[in-house]
Amino acid sequence: MFDIPTKVIHAGVQTMEAYRIRGGNPIQGTFVPQGNKNAALPMIAATLLTDQEIVLENVPDIRDVQVMLALVEHLGATVVEEAPGVWRIRAETLTSTRPDPALCRQIRASFLLAGPLLAREGRATLPRPGGDRIGRRPLDTHIYAFEQLGVEVEILPDRYILTAPHGLYGADIFLPEASVTGTENVVMAATAAQGTTIVRNAAAEPHVQQLCRMINAMGGHIEGIGSSTLVIEGGLPLGGARERIESDYIEVGSFIGLAAVTGGELRIKDAYPNEHHRMTRIVYERLGIRWEVDGNDIIVPAGQTLEVQDALHGAIPEIKDQLWPGFPADLTSIALVLATQARGTVLIHEWMFEGRLFWVDKLISMGARIVLCDPHRAVVVGPSKLYGQELTSPDIRAGMALVIAALCAEGESTIYNIHQIQRGYSRLDERLRALGADIERITV
Ligand SMILES: CC(=O)N[C@H]1[C@@H](OP(=O)(O)OP(=O)(O)OC[C@H]2O[C@@H](n3ccc(=O)[nH]c3=O)[C@H](O)[C@@H]2O)O[C@H](CO)[C@@H](O)[C@@H]1O
Ligand SMILES: C=C(OP(=O)(O)O)C(=O)O
Hints:
The protein is built from 16 helices and 23 strands. By secondary structure, it is α+β, with helices and mostly antiparallel strands. Belongs to the EPSP synthase family. MurA subfamily.
């Protein structure tokens, strides 16, 4: 039986842990990225699509994953860790279609259970999910898409009751937004629909692609993987599969930046430079960050001098998140902290989430020169010497950005609320120490 740590179940109130960091050391050596969090979560949900065993390899050891494993176990799946990072999950029979509300409220991805439960049992009751508080996290696209498949939806203040009394029917669906989890949910539900479903304006992030490939490996038939139009043949029997989760490209992007601003030489293994990082390369080059490619590895050279590359005619360059294959929203906070270390001026424009930039006041308190123009735009003028501070992590990525700031600051910083960082980065302090960082996890 999968033993979920008590601290995860009570994550809302737990964690008296903090990182104490002394900045100044170059981050250098060889780094092996974890598996992609945002692939692992829908892939764990997708194990409910079959009564056969699914084996997932390279599953990151992070809090969100622990919560998701606990959720599928509470629904009746058997969850066994075969080896570190290798999980065998079998949902031979489901004992409930109502995932544990307390666990659901801890992670946004809990809503990904809706698609598989509808596919398997024709019903699901889910509370409003949790996740990062980075602005409104709409579920409108999920609900719209389910309704197109014939799902009846009752929306209560605290939960959603989804039923498919007449079964699921394939449909030609144009999503109102290219929502990542919305696409994943409708794809999973469509595997059990009668006939063919076409999902247009689909999200195409690497984790959406990997989920679709997993479903094909289970015996499904999805065409158009990687494009904005997915065609799903419904009603095929789905069986067991063994899938290796690809590297987490947000973690890779975070560590490229970390090495560049601390001056170390870092080799990042299995980084998928061509598949995952072409746009990140273009954007990081605007900050003067360079890297080399060696097979599937990325090598960040030591001693880089970061200088903002002006746009044509000397215009101030803009770094803006986009839908895939554009610059990932989850790297915007990282790019912002990197910009504080580059000579020049850059505009950071985060249009997706209206609450993701408020944490810059913490960087300003460390010495960064930033004007927060409005909830979506910040002008960063660098380079700034940063000084250690007492900090609190508001969300995963801002938390990692604060870790980067603290690692290049003079003096000591303490970062509180690190359970937010641990949601997405596994054993961060331990892995950073192996690369030369002066970081310890303390109880406060
Ligand atoms: C578990 C998981 O996978 N979480 C990721 C997922 O969240 P999630 O699936 O929740 O994010 P969505 O793709 O649904 O939407 C992100 C935001 O962008 C807006 N939006 C999206 C598409 C669009 O065409 N127009 C539009 O305005 C949405 O209203 C929302 O505010 O994708 C986000 C965007 O990459 C990432 O930050 C999250 O880490
Ligand atoms: C916003 C994120 O995650 P979630 O959607 O799970 O809250 C993230 O990974 O940066």
